[in-house]
Design goal:
441 residues, 5-stranded parallel beta sheet, 18 helices, globular
Length: 441
């Protein structure tokens, strides 16, 4: 049996699950004051949020310094992207030719690998692709992301990225005969997930052939349909499948933009929500999905409106990218909401809408004003949040900061995405535009 990562890492659960903060400097404590704060139970105006080390402190705790946010901004939990392809985020998108939508994922994969954009992408190292993907998430307010690929692909990069990549999971690529044979087999991977209280992640019913449509049945017959499951896409779910998934307590990752491009449909999202299934939102690869989580949120609402002629509530969408995702990854005790004792994973967005949930649903990257991961500021408006940083913004390494301009405003950012972007353009030989890097170069 081959474990995906060392037992040494597994012994230290905190480090294995949240490697981002290991060895990174941060301020001891600070308070964010005078702003609207979105908590699980309420939207609180004129509130104070105290960060002590890497955690959110109890109400009334003292802070080493105070940062006034003000009423023109809203404080949210940092977002969680439940499904991304960190090895494969590049542009443009690759989809079906004309109206010949795919039967399952395999012909799309063949089209991608025979495309010019795939050849162009091959000029970049895997390391570069992982850093690009990290910044794709960072610039949309995402602190925590799950990578589509198995551990052997992403382990070399996780500790060095400027966002948190989930480490504790078991997976099968897909429950079908034409999957990519990742891991040690569905039954073994699921067994490990249950033993370690990790999620078991698999693509499921991503297509219309008979085998894809039997995904829930395959899991059920293998005794692998349980509350540990995070099922990706699920576009082939029948009403009976939805009942079985709800009864099992499994979660679903909804990736509507990718589904619509590849298959011209998506999962029965209204029925999933009505049944009480725990649904999170994922971007999938930028080769098929949205450029970032904020765009995916907008596309999700547009798709819901198109399918059902009604609005997907902004609060429901907020929950998909915070608490629901944390629950799916079995880390709700650690992150996903702004509660004392949880990790200080915080995003602050400019207020453009009176309703706080609607404000997030309509936000764009240029509205992001601060992103904190485990107490560490990784992106922020320098004029407002510069006091959270070391005084010397020296030439960047992976664990220092650089300056960028986004939406006409000056920001600090962890690492040096500007140099990364310039390196991409040099590698491909022309001024490549990557929409998920929304800053001036």
């Amino acid at each position: 049996m081959t474990l995906f990562f060392s037992e040494e890492l597994a012994e230290n659960r905190e480090k294995a699950l949240f490697p981002f903060s290991q060895g990174w400097a941060t301020v001891d404590s600070y308070a964010l004051t005078g702003t609207t704060i979105v908590t699980p139970s309420a939207v609180r105006a004129s509130s104070i949020l105290v960060v002590n080390g890497d955690k959110i402190a109890e109400p009334g705790a003292k802070a080493g310094r105070e940062i006034r946010v003000g009423p023109d901004s809203v404080v949210y939990p940092a977002l969680i992207n439940s499904h991304d392809h960190m090895r494969g985020n590049y542009l443009p998108r690759v989809g079906p030719k004309g109206d010949a939508f795919y039967e399952n994922w395999l012909p799309w994969d063949n089209d991608l690998k025979s495309s010019g954009v795939y050849d162009e992408r091959s000029n970049l190292s895997v390391e570069t692709l992982y850093f690009l993907s990290a910044y794709k998430n960072l610039f949309s307010g995402v602190a925590t992301v799950n990578d589509h690929f198995p551990h052997k692909f992403n382990e070399p990069f996780i500790d060095r990225l400027p966002v948190r990549v989930i480490r504790e999971y078991c997976l099968a690529h897909e429950c079908s005969s034409y999957d990519l044979k990742w891991g040690d087999g569905m039954e073994i991977e699921h067994k490990w997930a249950v033993e370690r209280d990790w999620p078991f992640i698999t693509h499921l019913e991503e297509g219309f052939d008979a085998e894809a449509q039997d995904g829930v049945g395959i899991l059920e017959r293998a005794a692998c349909l349980t509350e540990h499951d995070l099922l990706i896409h699920c576009i082939g779910f029948s009403d009976e499948d939805i009942k079985k998934v709800k009864k099992a307590g499994a979660s679903v990752s909804w990736c509507p933009a990718s589904n619509m491009l590849m298959f011209n449909t998506t999962c029965k999202i209204r029925k999933l929500l009505a049944a009480g299934v725990n649904v999170a939102l994922g971007t999938d690869s930028t080769h098929t999905g949205s450029v970032n989580t904020l765009s995916e949120m907008k596309f999700a609402r547009e798709t819901y409106r198109q399918f059902y002629g009604e609005e997907l509530p902004a609060k429901t969408l907020f929950e998909m990218v915070t608490r629901n995702a944390a629950k799916a990854f079995r880390i709700l005790a650690k992150t996903g909401s702004l509660e004392p004792g949880k990790l200080a994973d915080i995003s602050i967005f400019r207020r453009r809408q009176e309703d706080a949930y609607e404000n997030l649903a309509q936000a764009v990257p240029e509205d992001l004003e601060l992103l904190v991961i485990g107490g560490i500021p990784v992106l922020g408006l320098e004029a407002v949040y510069g006091d959270l940083l070391p005084k010397d913004l020296s030439p960047s390494t992976e664990k220092s900061y650089s300056r960028i301009r986004m939406g006409g405003r000056a920001y600090f950012v962890l690492g040096n995405p500007g140099d990364l972007y310039r390196g991409v353009r040099k590698a491909v030989g022309f001024p490549k535009k990557l929409d998920y890097l929304p800053f001036d170069v």
